[in-house]
């Protein structure tokens, strides 16, 4: 989300001058103040429409995990619900019922021991859901500390440095020390040994990522839990786990059924996921689910009297449209388990085939292959010294493709990579077109004598 700030790059300040065919006697329109008079709706539409043509094609944006295509029936349902306030459960009881059904579906999908008595909620996205999970961990830790007569002023949370920025926000906003485990060598994920090494009695929890945004790989949730079980046996320190399943929680249940990562592990207390990523819904909707009611402290639940009814709320946001929640339920109803399995397996098939084709080209080295999340990362081969991944990213923009290039975090800032996210709507045919365009651009890049772009000059992508 863009942030308006005096330090941001300056936008044009002169007034808009619409083309005569659209102006209808309006000569100029201010950019940063309200127009003095009304505009004809067709004029207003055309002005906004024309500016938006400068945006990239969302379907060709291989940087985003966010859903960029839905069925017409889903779009119609969303349009019908745009004016429904999700928080007003008394006025829109059936929208609230569909939210409750979604929470129960996910609770069962993720093997909650509570079964039909699910504890969870929808959110505006996985970032909000992650923060709710972190808050619950902090409150439960503080309650245990107080009961034992111990201080509560120095909480910490352990995670790999590959976490999404929402966790930095959580730690900053709620005064929790972040214990970030850096990358080492070819290990880009949090390992059990290194997670345990950071834990002590002030650790509110360990965050394990089911699908790193850097390379699409799963972190070993079960092994991390086993290592924490051993820590508790040796020291008495009981550290819970939150699974950041922003993407993988909508992938692994369908195409990795033998992977144990969810509430089947007693140490996993909460899971967040993005409905608007591999949940296949337009942005923005996320989900926070706890293993049982005890995992969500009572003091995080607010009971409010809103428009005539007492209702619980524990999301950070209040008013928001019900459209995305309804669309999520539509997908659950429309696709079922078999449909989700087919969609996610197709995406993985495209990702693994595409990564293999890129590897065959010669100038690239794969870091991952898309065989966990349908996401893979690759870098330039050791012998390539006349162009960078940033040159590749920049050149692919000429063909309309947004392929992000970025450097990895500490301690692998020396490693720069490209990443491809395959999601619903990215077909084998589009993969073939991507390879064709990549070959076309490589023929140009391989002739340049030295790299042109680095992280500071290529595009605007920042991981």
Automatic annotation (TrEMBL):
Family: Belongs to the group II decarboxylase family.
Source organism: Svornostia abyssi
Keyword Lyase attached: yes
Gene Ontology terms, MF aspect: glutamate decarboxylase activity
Gene3D superfamilies listed in its UniProt record: 3.90.1150.160, 4.10.280.50, Type I PLP-dependent aspartate aminotransferase-like (Major domain)
EC number, UniProt record: 4.1.1.15
Pfam families: Pyridoxal_deC
PANTHER family named in the record: GLUTAMATE DECARBOXYLASE (PTHR43321:SF3)
Catalytic activity: L-glutamate + H(+) = 4-aminobutanoate + CO2
InterPro entries membership: Glutamate_decarboxylase, PyrdxlP-dep_de-COase, PyrdxlP-dep_Trfase, PyrdxlP-dep_Trfase_major
Keywords: Decarboxylase, Lyase, Pyridoxal phosphate
UniProt protein name: Glutamate decarboxylase
Cofactor entry: pyridoxal 5'-phosphate
């Amino acid at each position: 989300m863009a942030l308006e700030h005096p330090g941001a790059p300056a936008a044009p300040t002169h007034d808009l001058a619409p083309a005569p065919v659209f102006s209808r006697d309006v000569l100029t329109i201010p950019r940063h103040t309200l127009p003095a008079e009304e505009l004809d709706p067709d004029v207003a539409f055309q002005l906004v429409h024309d500016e938006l043509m400068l945006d990239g094609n969302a379907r060709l944006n291989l940087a985003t995990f966010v859903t960029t295509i839905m069925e017409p029936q889903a779009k119609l349902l969303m349009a019908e619900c745009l004016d429904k306030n999700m928080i007003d459960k008394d006025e829109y009881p059936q929208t609230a019922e569909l939210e409750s059904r979604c929470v129960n579906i996910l609770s069962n999908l993720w093997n909650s021991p509570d079964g039909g008595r699910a504890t969870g909620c929808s959110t505006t996205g996985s970032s909000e859901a992650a923060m709710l999970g972190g808050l619950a961990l902090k409150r439960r830790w503080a309650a245990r500390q107080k009961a034992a007569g111990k201080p509560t002023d120095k909480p910490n949370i352990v995670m790999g440095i590959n976490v999404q920025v929402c966790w930095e926000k959580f730690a900053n906003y709620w005064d929790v020390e972040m214990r970030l485990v850096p990358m080492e060598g070819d290990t880009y994920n949090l390992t059990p040994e290194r997670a345990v090494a950071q834990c002590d009695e002030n650790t509110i929890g360990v965050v394990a990522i089911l699908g790193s945004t850097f390379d699409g790989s799963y972190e070993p949730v079960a092994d991390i839990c086993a290592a924490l079980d051993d820590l508790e046996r040796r020291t008495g320190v009981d550290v819970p786990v939150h699974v950041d399943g922003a993407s993988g929680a909508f992938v692994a249940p369908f195409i990795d059924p033998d992977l144990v990562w969810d509430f089947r592990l007693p140490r996993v207390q909460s899971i967040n996921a993005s409905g608007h990523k591999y949940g296949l819904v337009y942005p923005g909707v996320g989900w926070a689910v706890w293993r049982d009611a005890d995992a969500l402290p009572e003091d995080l639940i607010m009971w409010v009297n809103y428009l005539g009814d007492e209702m619980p709320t524990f999301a950070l946001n209040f008013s928001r449209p019900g459209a995305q929640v309804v669309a999520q339920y539509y997908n659950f109803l429309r696709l079922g388990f078999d449909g989700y399995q087919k969609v996610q397996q197709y995406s993985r098939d495209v990702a693994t085939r595409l990564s293999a084709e890129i590897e065959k080209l010669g100038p690239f080295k794969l870091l991952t292959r898309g065989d966990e999340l349908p996401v893979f990362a690759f870098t330039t081969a050791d012998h390539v010294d006349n162009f960078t991944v940033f040159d590749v990213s920049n050149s692919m923009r000429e063909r309309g493709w947004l392929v992000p290039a970025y450097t990895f975090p500490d301690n692998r800032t020396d490693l720069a990579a490209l990443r491809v996210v395959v999601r619903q709507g990215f077909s084998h045919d589009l993969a073939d077109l991507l390879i064709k365009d990549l070959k076309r651009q490589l023929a140009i890049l391989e002739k340049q004598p030295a790299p042109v772009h680095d992280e500071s000059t290529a595009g605007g992508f920042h991981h």
